[in-house]
Write a structure and sequence with these properties.
The chain is an alpha/beta fold and 228 residues long. 32% of the residues lie in helices and 24% in strands.
């Protein structure tokens, strides 16, 4: 199949499958593109919303590689396609998808999405920023042990949200935090997994006993001089 440069795909990543969390940009693109492609696992409410607001909705139930090939074949009929990807990894850069379509002379663009962990933090009253001062927030993934230590020593952090890659990484970070009295004094540490909050008590050794690590859904929250 010969494709031309007028073809374009938009990629939107979301884990909630909830129309209340759709961005205005996403809704606008739904209405403008020739076709929306997503998984058959969508909620009925979401399917109804997209069907009513788009020119065409196609639902697929396949693995990622087959879905990409099917989307590619759809470009014989459509010029612009929106791929609504169900994925709970906010840090997904869509490298595989972008490379696949760009190798077939198709332009790619990613749409901004909502961040699930932000909703969870708001529910727990661990707000991203402190309005009383010019605070900052840093998101991190695949952070090395030595880099965490450097960041905490440097300070001026505000809030840091680290997506945990493994239970071992969590244990390594805990060891770094526990062994430095400066960190005890200047930071508050919390863990979040499966929408559950656990405060890290650095005076005990059993803080992990209640924590169930879930890959792609576990976070270490660090607040500098925060009242939690």
């Amino acid at each position: 199949m010969k494709l031309n440069k007028n073809k374009k795909i938009y990629i939107f990543n979301s884990s909630k499958d909830d129309i209340l969390d759709f961005t205005l940009e996403f809704i606008d693109k739904i209405r403008k593109v020739d076709c929306v492609v997503s998984s058959k696992n969508l909620k009925k409410q979401t399917i109804d919303f997209i069907s009513e607001n788009s020119k065409k909705l196609i639902l697929l139930q396949k693995n990622k590689k087959l879905i990409l090939k099917d989307i590619l074949s759809l470009f014989s009929q459509f010029n612009e396609i929106l791929y609504f990807k169900l994925n709970n990894n906010f840090f997904d850069s869509f490298f595989e998808e972008k490379s696949f379509f760009q190798n077939h002379s198709i332009k790619t663009d990613t749409l901004l999405n909502t961040i699930d962990i932000v909703d969870i933090l708001n529910q727990k009253k661990l707000f991203l920023t402190n309005r009383k001062k010019n605070s900052t927030v840093l998101f991190s993934y695949k952070l090395r042990n030595k880099d965490l230590k450097k960041i905490l020593i440097k300070g001026s952090l505000g809030k840091m949200i680290i997506k945990l890659d493994s239970k071992k990484q969590l244990l390594d970070f805990y060891k770094i935090i526990k062994e430095n009295s400066y960190f005890h004094k200047n930071y508050k540490f919390n863990l979040i997994s499966e929408n559950k909050l656990l405060n890290i008590n650095l005076d005990t050794n059993d803080m992990l006993s209640e924590f169930m690590f879930k890959k792609n859904n576990s976070y270490l929250i660090i607040d500098e001089n925060a009242e939690i």
